[in-house]
Design a protein that fits this description.
With 158 residues, the chain is mainly α. Helix content is 58%, strand content 8%. It has one domain: Arc Repressor Mutant, subunit A (Orthogonal Bundle), CATH 1.10.10.
Length: 158
Amino acid sequence: MKYDQLKLDQQLCHRLYIASNGLTRAYRPLLDALNLTYPQYVVMMALWEEDGITVQTLLQKTAVNGGAMSLILKKMMDKKLLSVTPSDEDKRKKLIHLLPTGIQLQEQAAEVPTKIQCSFANIEKSDLHQLINLLDKVLINLLDKVCLDLDTTAEFDS
């Protein structure tokens, strides 16, 4: 090969791509049981941490694209998991609140992280924490240096 830097085994992005696909496959049956997609699961985790947040805050917590978030929230409202309502203080801001069905779903979802960790049976817990820290550094660098476009303008506004 003329350029070693083009070999697949030299590519961080290819490893991340393969890992992402593998994680998606591992999550799929667990989330199917909850009737959630992975992006919906991410939204639910953010709302279980803090209910009654603005769309803008949710976008910041999840790093989901604003246009995609609008569709995700609509589907989750259709499933009666959450509501999106104008703020009393500022009608331009929309607040997201879990509905009883969304609150109850947390009980079923509590086992998902433990089951996913079984996918990493050969990796020490300290290595997983190190991986999370390294990926956080990668993300910070990508966001700072490349200025990735995280669209924070969802149809619901902030």
